[in-house]
């Protein structure tokens, strides 16, 4: 019977720490990643625009033999 107390205590401690550090702040809207500022939104918009532009600029070669030459050694 005494061998079950240590795992049981560790499980309870893990549950309490999870609630205290993770769940409680999110319920109170105090999580560190809950809201993003306008600066971050502007950076994300610019990065998405740049990614879209780069994808449009690069086109795959039309001829499959038109690739860079590789040397077999």
Keywords, separated by commas or semicolons:
elongated; 73 residues; 0% strand
CA-to-CA gap between the ends? 68 Å
Total DSSP E strands: 0
Work out the oligomeric state of the chains in this entry: single chain
Q: Mean of residue pLDDT? A: 78
List the secondary-structure elements in sequence, H or E.
Answer: HH
> In percent, how helical is the residue content?
55-70%
Low-pLDDT stretches are none
Q: What is the structural class?
A: mainly alpha
β-strand amount? under 5%
Protein described:
The protein has helices at 5-27, 38-57. It has 73 residues and is an all-alpha fold. It is elongated, with a radius of gyration of 27 Å. The mean pLDDT is 78.
Give me the secondary-structure topology.
Layout: H1 5-27, H2 38-57
Briefly, what is this?
The chain has 73 residues and is mostly helical. The chain has 2 helices and no strands.
């Amino acid at each position: 019977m005494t061998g079950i107390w240590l795992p049981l205590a560790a499980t309870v401690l893990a549950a309490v720490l999870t609630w205290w550090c993770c769940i409680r702040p999110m319920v109170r809207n105090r999580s560190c990643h809950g809201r993003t500022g306008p600066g971050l939104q502007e950076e994300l918009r610019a990065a998405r625009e740049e990614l879209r532009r780069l994808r449009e600029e690069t086109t795959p070669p039309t001829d499959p033999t038109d690739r860079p030459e590789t040397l077999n050694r």
